[in-house]
Amino acid sequence: MTCPVPRYDVVCFDVDGTLYPARMMRRNLLLCALAHPVLFSRYSSVRKVFRPYQEGREFSSVYDMPTREALIMAGRYGELELPEQQAAQVLADPFVIRLKDSLTEIVYPSMARMMRHIKPFRGVRQTMEKLCASGVRIGVLSDFPLGDKLRTLGVSDLVTFAADCLDCRYLKPDKRCFDYLVDCGRINRRTDRVLFVGDSWQKDVAGALQAGWDAALIGRGRPESRGCRVFEDWETFDRWLSTGLED
Question: What distance lies between CA 227 and its chain's CA centroid?
């Protein structure tokens, strides 16, 4: 590409579909669903509902992410916005507790076990090594529990800071996810140039641009727009990014 590349101070990555092929995750989720069909069907529905529902809403701060997902599984959306005193009563509800336990004891561990066999795109570690050698800090933000994914992908030693949905309690593209990553990585909004790299226009790019960052999309997506570059694969992204590191 002939476009000038800014000299970034921080580069943050999505994980699933960005650092490794999305087909691997889809296959693993299918295997989980075959083992626990009803539970994973409900969990999949939760994800589809929660993302649009969270927009513009403030949820009770006493709820962790599994509790929020459990309430949506139960169809009790309104209780997500209860005052703190009333929310504490929800936490003691046996039905909510059972649903939450099913997430923390079955869904999340099942996904973690299946992700032990994922393999990164070729060039991922080399690109991150270049970034580190140039003094660029690397962050990670995932909509799914990270578990040991970064270690499995062979990049955990290169990542400076990381957060997932269990940490920030929201899903991308909600700006609060990116704000959480700012705090986690101690990013200076006034001086640090930040690039977010993902594979989803709706989740990764939209959220990053809303946070005031630049964005890069790896994979098929919309045409390039202000603040976002689109690359067909990791190799072309690496070539573009490397020109900025060499300046």
Answer: 20
CATH value at residue 153: 3.40.50.1000
State pLDDT tens for residues 223-246.
666 778 899 899 999 999 888 776
Question: Which residues constitute the domain of residue 156?
Answer: 10-20+119-246
Report the 10 Å Cβ neighbour count for 52. Answer: 8
pTM of this prediction? 0.91
Domain boundary among 65, 91, 116: 116
